[in-house]
Amino acid sequence: MEEFKRLSRDLVANGAIFDYYQDTIQIPNGNIAKWDFIKHNGAAAVVPVDERGRLIMVRQYRNALDRYTLEIPAGGLNGPDEPTEDAASRELAEETGYRAGKIELLLSIRTTVAFCNEKIDIYVATELTPGKQHLDEDEYVDVKAYELDELVNMVFSGKIEDSKTVAAILSYKEKYCSGKQEIR
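Predicted structure:
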C-alpha cells in the first residue's frame, strides 16, 4: 500500500466546537498537498423510544442550513474523555426532559471523513421517564414523538437529511424492528 506522510499540521483557528488545521501532506507520487482538517472532540446521540414504540425527536433551528431540522437528541462531549453513554443520557435529559431506565449502544459513525475526525456514538434509550427540559440559553428545542414508519418515510422523501438521524433511524429499524434483536 502506498504511503501518505503528514509533514505538518498547523492550527488555523480555535473554535467553540472544533479546531481548524491545515495539514501539509506528501502523497505517494511525491507531490505535496494542503488539506484541511477539523479536530472534533466527539459527540453522542440517542434514539429515545417511548412505551408505545414511538421515537422521541427534536426540532431545532440549524444555522448552517438556515432552517429547522428534525433530529434525534445529540450533543458534543464535554471533553474528549467523557464517556459517550453519559453524554447521550445528558443530552436526552437536557433536550427532551426524559431520563432513560435502559440505554445501549446502537452504532458509531464518522460524520465527514474527508476533513473531520468527528465520531458520534448513537444509543437507544428505553424505559423513559418524563421530566423537564434543561436547555442552554441559546437553544430552542421542540419535542415530539413519531411512529417509526413515519420517520423512515421522512428519510426517503428527503425531509430528514441529518446524517446521524438517518443512520440512527434506519439502524434502529433494522436491528430492533426486523425481528433480529430485542432491546436488553
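Summary: DSSP finds three helices and ten strands in the chain.
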